Amino acid sequence: MGKWRYGVILDAGSSGTRVHIYKWLNSAKARAKADEKELHGLPVLKTDKDWTKKIHPGVSTFGDTPELVGPDHLQPLFEHALDVIPKSQVENTPIFLLATAGMRLLPAPKRKALLEEICAYARENTRFQLPDCDLHIQVIPGETEGLYGWIAANYLLGGFDAPKEHDHGKGHHTYGFLDMGGASAQIAFSPNATEAKKHANDLTLLRMRTIDGKPLEYPVFVTTWLGFGMHEARRRYVEALRNSTSPDTMELPDPCLPRGLNVTTEGKHITKGSDEWKGLQPHLLGTGLFTECLAQTYPLLDKDAPCPDAPCLLHGVHVPAIDFDVNHFVGVSEYWHTTHEIFEEGHKDRAYDFHTYQERVKGFCTQDWSDIEDAIESKKWGKKVNEETAQEVCFKASWLIRMLHDGIGVPRVGIEHLNTDHNGTAELIDNAKEKGYLDPFQAVNEIHDTEVSWTLGKMVLYASSQIPPADKALAVGFGSNGAGIPPDFQYAGGKFDPKIDNLTDAADDDDDDWHDHLFSDSPRRIPGFLMFVVIVAVILFLLCGRERRTTLIAKAKRSLGFNPTGPKRRKVFTGKLFGLSSQPLYERVLEDAEAGEFELADADSENEHSDSSDGTRVGRTSGWATPRLNAAFDRSPGYFDEDALGVGGLVPPSVVGNAMERGGLLARTDSRERLAAPVRSRAGSPTRRSPVLKSVREFSD
């Protein structure tokens, strides 16, 4: 098959579905090209920004009309994938559709019917690899989404492939992962050795496979907080505002909105004539008191909830103690957008600084809404910042600060003391700090120009499952933290297939190593190489010109012992192809004649003229053979037989006369003087006198 393997994954979120496409070298090719260090690493995946495409709304909106999810939603995403992936690779390309928060909210019967329709449509309308619907088309829990995100972050940062270069101390070399969407928030990290031993039963064992086929295992803690995503947190916050005032109150003061801004409880502008405008429904009035906003968002953490399995961080959810000396977190999605959409200036390449961030947010959120509108109009914060972004950012910033520092417990850099002694060279520490990856928290969107997406983590896991195992390595996937394959083990979805991952078959349109294969020492390459040489020789022979071709053939005949002046064979297809004739003497005279010494009859563009009854074309040429005057020699078999020749090989006059009568030879000449005129042979060609022309001159005289 091909040099490259491809994978397609659709992230089916609550607001839309995005298709991601990745490619990687097939396992045999990767192993052949890898150096010693790369052999101990994971497959190298590649993607491109143009390979992604998102459409709205989410698949969950088709809960009542599952029959429409294919043509109205999935088809353009499938077409986009087919435009990227070579046709020869489609059948070997796995496709996954993994749904998250939006689909989790659907009733079980609707969710099941929709997933079945998605799988059926994909199988009927594409040739993608889809062997198991339950594995490839499914709703994944928040914990799985968090684990995939943890894989993606550490894969891009290099925590897996170069552990010594990412030593954070105490033998720890991986990074923690934080994700926050609209409905839920996730955390994933590998605890330090002490906590990992203490909470072994709470951990998930992740098993991958390096290029040399050896297992790569990590115990990871993953959990999710439903209702703690940005949109759900805002909904709970507004509900708390309404419950804290009288039911008759129509104007609810909101410290998390810029001063003077009026919006509905859903965050929409109040339009003239609406119930809010008439005073029939409550609305929110911004007061711009950010300190009070922070105070009112704290109760949303539910820190006082019972903790049946200590320790807990928030909402009574158990989380092993986090050692921030060695556990350094990267945050994606809302963690990135909320810290960078408006407050990006001077912050993009720096680690998160609580003190600086809070001061910037406070300065923004205490402004009058009219001033903010003017700044938006003048593009102060860039083209992407609109009124909707500006009115939401104050609550988002408050919630992010609460989740990070009061919920998860990330130290407040700039205020709280943090032990920053790390093992490793000073140069590595300086370089890492410049990017912020040795600080307790850093918001990221891309690492090495690749988006940190949980879909990448899923595909890394799948790609590693394609590698043939060394010895008796266990399957790739994740499950309960224990030996062997636990009952809840989630397989990566693939396995090594020698028919696909075969180095000798690794020929692809974009294989830029073709020259290495062509001249390799493999005996299987020799016949192909010889055929290649023969084809090149034939092409060069055809391009060298008629004169050189004739000369080369004559030399070849002499070297093989053929008599060029002996009896000639009838012309066959090769004679036409290479410009040769069964009448070389006559043809050479015509070919070498000076311009104007003979004329061809005009050809009718509507018809193909032929001087023979079998339809052979003359008077026209494709460019491969010289134009010929065969009419003068339209003869019966045996014309050049020895019995028909006179002494010295001359043709009897009677024969010539008959030939002239049949073909009208003299009609194609201006005078007998022209026929009798001496003809010069082309340079480099053997000079011969035609016995035919000699007999014509004798007859004329």
Explain what this protein looks like in three dimensions.
- The protein folds into 3 domains: 357 residues, 2-Layer Sandwich (Nucleotidyltransferase, domain 5), CATH 3.30.420.40; 138 residues, 2-Layer Sandwich (Nucleotidyltransferase, domain 5), CATH 3.30.420; 157 residues, no CATH class.
- The chain has an 8-stranded mixed beta sheet with strand order 14-13-6-7-9-8-17-18.
- With 701 residues, the protein is α/β, with parallel strands linked by helices.
- It contains 25 helices and 18 strands.
- Helices cover 36% and strands 12% of the residues.
- Strand 8 and strand 9 form a beta hairpin.
Task: Please describe the topology of this protein.
Elements: E1 4-12, E2 17-25, H1 27-33, H2 36-39, E3 53-55, H3 69-84, E4 95-99, H4 101-104, H5 108-125, H6 133-136, E5 137-139, H7 142-157, E6 176-180, E7 184-189, H8 193-198, E8 204-209, E9 215-226, H9 230-243, E10 251-254, E11 262-264, H10 275-278, E12 283-286, H11 290-297, E13 329-333, H12 334-340, H13 354-365, H14 369-377, H15 387-408, H16 426-435, E14 441-443, E15 446-447, E16 450-451, H17 454-465, E17 477-480, E18 490-491, H18 514-518, H19 526-543, H20 546-559, H21 573-577, H22 584-592, H23 653-663, H24 672-676, H25 691-700
Parallel strand pairs: 1-4, 4-5, 6-13, 10-12, 13-14
Antiparallel strand pairs: 1-2, 2-3, 6-7, 7-9, 8-9, 8-17, 11-12, 15-16, 17-18
Helix pairs in contact: 3-5, 7-17, 11-15, 12-15, 13-15
Gist?
InterPro entries: GDA1_CD39_NTPase. With about 700 residues, the chain is α/β, with parallel strands linked by helices. Strands 14-13-6-7-9-8-17-18 form an eight-stranded mixed beta sheet. It has a five-stranded mixed beta sheet with strand order 3-2-1-4-5.
